[in-house]
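Record type: ASSEMBLY
Status: queued
Input:
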Amino acid sequence: MDQAQALDALSALAHETRLQILRLLVPCGQDGLPAGEIGAAVDCAASRLSFHLSTLEQAGLISARRDGRRVIYSARRQQLGGLIHYLLNDCCAGDRTVSAMCRAELGLCG
Amino acid sequence: MDQAQALDALSALAHETRLQILRLLVPCGQDGLPAGEIGAAVDCAASRLSFHLSTLEQAGLISARRDGRRVIYSARRQQLGGLIHYLLNDCCAGDRTVSAMCRAELGLCG
DNA sequence: TCCATAGTTCAACTACTCATGAAGCGTTGA
DNA sequence: TCAACGCTTCATGAGTAGTTGAACTATGGA
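Status: finished
Output:
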């Protein structure tokens, strides 16, 4: 992930509804959720939801596939990992204070 | 860090100049850099720079102190770590794919 | 006290993002 | 083939973020 991609991803995440959508989709893995269920969960009108989903998709953070008349969205977890990787490595240059904050989450020995 | 703080931080980071500023400040640690040097490094007019610095400061990502007639800015690395922690833990719920992407940066044994 | 330096704040403008409702497109079942 | 469903796209308007240059504040030195 380069700076331009990271900026796209950060912009996409910097919105309450879209962050909510991602938090909803990550645990669902590859199965994902249809747009309608996402809209109900985040209490969002169809057209607005579609806008937010397309923003997330353009940023590479989610992907869509059609299943009959429904469209299933799922989180692209590699891209999310890539963003965090970018923040840690390229942006924070492996800074000790920053990385120490993250170790507990990753079951580390360091 | 809660969702509101994370959203502030993400918004602040989602701008090329501000991301550049942070990448500049992190390696400087507590010493930080005066506004003038930051402006020269990121090629940014004074008033615009001041605007971006205040955005980063309001988001809690940098802090300012006066030194004579200069104002020294330094990265608040704990907040940066907190944001990454939030993305890993609260947003991605410790997802395996996401955390695997980050392990290499942290010198992990897992 | 006066001037120069270092930054910040303000006002005006531009550009972009977001929300809304209506119209449109693709799919399914009668 | 027609209506219903699920979702997307479009047009519009409101609000917000970003840029610019001028004016302002604070500090230090002559």
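Annotation: Chain A has a mean pLDDT of 92.
Annotation: The first strand of chain A starts at residue 33 and ends at 34.
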